[in-house]
Amino acid sequence: MLSHLLAIGLLSLAKTSQGSYGFYVGKALTHDGSVMLGGTGEEVSSHWLQIFPAKDHKANDTIVVGVTEDAVMPGKLMNISQAPHTFRYLSMEYSDFEGFPAPLTNGGVNEKGVAVRDIWAQNRDDLIAMTPNPQTGLQYSDLARVVLERASTAREGVELIGQMIADYGYADYGGNSHLIADASEGWVVWEMSGGQKLWAAERLGENDVRVLYPGYIEDFPVDFENSPDYMGSPNIVSFAVEQGWWNPNSTKPFNIFNAYAPQEEGYTARDGGAKYMSQAALEDATRAMAPVTEKDLIEHVRDYRISDDEAEATQFAGRIFKKVLYYTCSDPESYLPVVQNMLHGFENASFADMEWVERAAHTMVEAGQQEHALDLLTFYSHARAEKALALGRTMADALDAYVKLTGQFRMPSGDRINDPGLGAETVNCLVGWDPDQPADKQKPLKRFRRSK
């Protein structure tokens, strides 16, 4: 079971406010009786797998949680107590969302076999409007990390989320959910905006399939405290009644989605985020695959009918040259001239090619061979792009090897993404300088000297 959670639960390479999704398949529907959890998303961001060792903590140790004033729904950070002991876990870390301090976790799996996955889950405008400014509490990544660090079962993970929200509050960007699973079962947890500490959870059993795109929970018992299959904040039903979002005297059952999701005409729980396939269609397709194998779900998670994003499975120039940028800016005095000379050399070679390529294409057009001219231009463009990608790999590999073999590799210092040029270290080869002015026109500013 653990191997499936590792292989599938960590396929999550991204998360966006309108792009991430997750799969759950109960153990009665899999070929070997394993619970399966998977997911991915579409944001462009730095991502890396990281193993966090088990660790004992001092009695007064704390962790920083929440969002900053730069978030789309502003907040302020706070310190909460760390657990005496945290488990070993594997996490997909990433660095996206302004105002949500990196590194964030998109989910992972811990030494106890508990896996968690973040999935967006919007709330109705009324909740977003009543969110305090600034908001405080744990955000979605904080909650996922707490589960990975502290939960021994999926149920315990849900209880931890509920306790954290009750004790410290919840901060977000408009609503979020989590898929949590262990060897026996899964849970959907939906955390609500609004500053009311609202959340709800539904158990997923061995015969269940759930696709969250976005996260959802539908019918929910008003006496959920007496059911082993549901959990929630004490006010999850009463608050909806107080706001007039559900009438307890009506014949309609209490429904979390109907009460707390966006109130758009025709918007239902199982078709809310679809590009090409709805959640309903995805769930039906997944169930039809039973008994589902690990390979089946891996293929299903990256199905092009769900998402049109393809960069995460290919070599991506943006990521390769970003790596070149990071290494270059770690010591621009040493590396920038070399990198610039290589880039200029490549550009000059391309300019030199333009004369004969354009002349040849023009000759073909004049001879009435427009398709041949188009083929030539397309072939040259593709070939040159491949060479540019190869150049990026060469530079990244060379810088990576040199920096590491000479003992200069280190993590960046500080926690700021941007700096006005007054001394903090940033990923910028022009810290303290105005890039629109020549070097001899720069104002004298205190320069940050990077340690070797």
UniProtKB/TrEMBL annotation:
Residues 433-452 are annotated as: Disordered. The keyword Iron-sulfur does not apply. Pfam families: Peptidase_C69. One of its GO terms (biological process) is proteolysis. Keywords: Signal. GO terms for molecular function: cysteine-type exopeptidase activity; dipeptidase activity. Residues 1-19 form the signal peptide. The keyword Cell cycle does not apply. InterPro entries: Peptidase_C69. Belongs to the peptidase C69 family. Secernin subfamily. This is Dipeptidase. It comes from Cochliobolus sativus.
